[in-house]
Design goal:
about 475 residues, about 70% helix
């Protein structure tokens, strides 16, 4: 490098340092006053960088040697572990062969006992499921744990049951059989229908179920899923609870009591059986509309029966007093028309009376047609609910499939309940319409009969005058 090049570079460096010094607010330290000073400063900086580079290089070499030492140690450790792994695999294979040989020796020694242990395991499993749902479990807790441990032990080929365990298995089986034929009174915690637990006196009737008369007569059920005794949320009706009360208070050797032969399964189904109100609610909006229409038809029919009966009584009273017509009944109004038209000829008089009767019939038959319409519309509304329910059922099948019947139960219930409600409304409506229409027709016949009699009398009177 020539001196001119060095001088030019130094001048450029000096110019750059000068511009930086003007931009800073505070004065810089160690500023070069000449090119020689600047060259000296550059030389010293280069020496310092070389020293720092040598220190870093030495540190790198030291760490590289340390990594090499650690790598060597790790490879030695890996070799030792590989040798140890090979030795453990050999030991494992030897132990596995020895276990297989010992198991074969055990199987040969067990012989026919193996079938006996299988019977013990099956019996213990069956008894565990039986005791889990048995009503006697509230008096004898802890049986299930023993049977579970015993069944697990019998399922293993490395353990043999003891005489004490076999005797206890026999004892638990015999005790369950004995207790299923006893009627026992005892005190136990019972979950009420409101979810509150209280101590009550309980009567266990063998294995058929349990009752309580403390404080009120009620049937109880053993809820196996929570291992608690609970009162049925819905009790049977028809005088059954009175038998429970009499049975609990009776000291006789024999007393009347209704029991569930399935051990409580049928009584537990009472919770799922809907009441009348719940069945009506299953019909949905269409069901409520049918009931509302039916109630309206019933009220209208009763009102019409009462008014027609009053009208019949008034007509009957008027028949006994033909000479004194009154305007408060149809026959009296027809008689008034007859008295006002006596001077007319027979044809005109007959037409006037027919007109008067026609005027009375709409009043007599008022609302009768509405009852008839309701008797016809109610089954059609039930059919509408049926179709709607089936549509809901098919939609549920489309969305959820047929795996869960509960997803289809709502639509099917609506389909069946609305049909029943429609028939329940239509049948009485038809009967009421027949009663009302026949009585209204009877009044009309009375009016026609009296009008025909009046015309006949008028014809006789005119014939006598001639």
């Amino acid at each position: 490098m020539s001196w001119l090049t060095i001088k030019t570079a130094a001048a450029a460096t000096l110019l750059a340092l000068s511009s930086i010094s003007f931009a800073e607010t505070a004065p810089q330290q160690n500023q070069a006053d000449s090119l020689d000073d600047l060259l000296e400063m550059v030389k010293q900086g280069t020496l310092e960088d070389q020293q720092e580079l040598q220190v870093r290089e030495a540190e790198f070499q030291r760490k590289r040697d340390e990594q090499a030492r650690l790598l060597k140690a790790a490879r030695q450790e890996l070799k030792r572990e590989e040798d140890r792994s090979i030795q453990l695999e050999r030991t494992f294979d030897d132990n596995k062969k020895q276990i297989r040989d010992n198991q074969q020796v055990l199987q040969n020694k067990l012989g026919s006992l193996k079938e006996l242990f299988g019977i013990f395991q099956q019996t213990a499993g069956d008894l565990q499921a039986e005791f889990f749902s048995s009503a006697t479990s509230i008096q004898y807790p802890g049986r299930g744990e023993f049977l579970e441990d015993f069944a697990k032990k019998m399922s293993k080929a490395s353990e043999i049951s003891t005489i004490e365990e076999v005797e206890r298995l026999w004892f638990e089986l015999q005790r369950e059989m004995t207790e299923s034929g006893k009627i026992i009174r005892f005190s136990a915690p019972v979950l009420g229908a409101d979810g509150r637990e209280s101590q009550r006196e309980v009567i266990r009737v063998g294995g058929f179920g349990m009752i309580s008369n403390d404080p009120d007569p009620a049937y109880l059920a053993w809820r196996a899923e929570i291992q608690k005794l609970a009162e049925l949320k819905r009790q049977p009706t028809g005088g059954v609870l009175s038998d429970v009360e009499d049975y609990a208070e009776s000291d006789a050797a024999h007393a009347r009591l209704a029991v569930d032969p399935t051990g409580g399964a049928l009584l537990s189904r009472l919770v799922d059986s809907p009441t009348l109100g719940e069945r009506v609610a299953q019909g949905g909006l269409v069901g409520y509309i049918i009931l509302a229409v039916g109630a309206f038809a019933l009220v209208l029919a009763l009102f019409k029966i009462v008014t027609i009966n009053l009208t019949s009584m008034q007509v009957a009273a008027q028949k006994r007093d033909i000479s004194n017509p009154r305007s408060d009944n149809p026959l009296g109004r027809v008689l008034q028309v007859y008295n006002a038209s006596k001077s007319l000829d027979i044809e005109s008089l007959e037409m006037r009376l027919a007109e008067a009767i026609l005027d009375e019939m709409p009043r007599i038959n008022r609302f009768v047609v509405i009852i008839k319409i309701i008797s016809v519309v109610a089954p059609l509304m039930g059919l509408l609910g049926t179709v709607t329910g089936m549509i809901n059922t098919f939609q549920a099948i489309t969305l959820f499939g047929t795996g869960d019947p509960k997803t289809m139960a709502g639509g099917i219930s609506q389909a069946l309940v609305t049909t029943v409600l429609g028939l329940v409304v239509a049948i009485p409506a038809v009967v009421l319409h027949t009663i009302v229409a026949s009585r209204a027709k009877a009044i009309g016949h009375t009016l026609e009969h009296q009008a025909a009699g009046l015309i006949a009398e008028q014809m006789e009177a005119k014939a006598n005058e001639q």
